[in-house]
Design brief:
Blueprint (H helix, E strand, L loop, with lengths): L1 H12 L24 H10 L15 H7 L4 H4 L14 H8 L7 H11 L20 H6 L5 H4 L14 E3 L5 E3 L3 H10 L6 H4 L2
Antiparallel strand pairs: 1-2
Helix pairs in contact: 5-6
Length: about 200
């Protein structure tokens, strides 16, 4: 009875079954979230520039955008630097805490999400390095009030992180470049920090 009623209604109102639809190519998936700002696009392009100082990283991350334009504190991403000897880099999970919500229209964020989906760490290239026999403790320097820029340079202005030049000259005209022993000793002298060998070599 119900089938007959449906058939009758269909005949009365001229309803018909679904018509065949021509095959279509799948549309490209539209990224979710709002469109990124032009500043974000410009920063990504600058961080991808092979001619700019610094190494090309797996993801074109701009400190100038995040730390400079958006004023994100260093300690938000480099969590625990005031407690740990090593500064480390933010986890993919931390990055996704923000970028799960926006930035999906940018190639760099899409690469980030690929690392997240595959549950793989980002193979960042290290820029600042001291010799293995030097024990540099980030926590002691942060707790003493030494700004990150003292060693890393004005990162809030850099689209690509790179080692900035800084050379001090000793009274006997011997140069010492940034992160060399003499440069570190000069900083310790200026700030009345220990110059005992075992402070850094243990």
């Amino acid at each position: 009875m119900a089938c007959a009623t449906c058939l009758a209604v269909g005949l009365v109102f001229g309803l018909s079954g679904p018509e065949p639809v021509a095959a279509q190519a799948p549309a490209a998936a539209a990224p979710s979230g709002p469109r990124s700002s032009q500043k974000a696009y410009d920063a990504q392009a600058a961080a991808s520039d092979p001619d700019a100082p610094g190494l090309l990283q797996p993801i074109p991350f701009s400190h100038a955008l995040h730390a400079g334009e958006y004023k994100i504190d260093c300690m938000y991403c480099h969590t625990g630097t005031d407690q740990s000897r090593a500064a480390g880099v933010p986890s993919v999970e931390l990055c996704m805490g923000c970028h799960a919500q926006f930035g999906g229209d940018m190639e760099g964020v899409q690469t980030l999400k690929k690392f997240w989906d595959e549950q793989k760490p980002i193979p960042w290239l290290q820029i600042h390095r001291v010799p293995e026999h030097v024990k540099f403790r980030h926590n002691r320097h942060v707790q003493a009030g030494v700004e990150c820029q003292r060693c890393h340079g004005p990162v809030e202005t850099m689209d690509k992180i790179h080692l900035t030049s800084d050379t001090i000259w000793w009274p006997w005209l011997l140069p010492s470049k940034k992160l060399e022993m003499g440069w570190c000793i000069d900083c310790h002298r200026q700030n009345q920090a220990s110059q005992d060998c075992l402070t850094c070599h243990y």
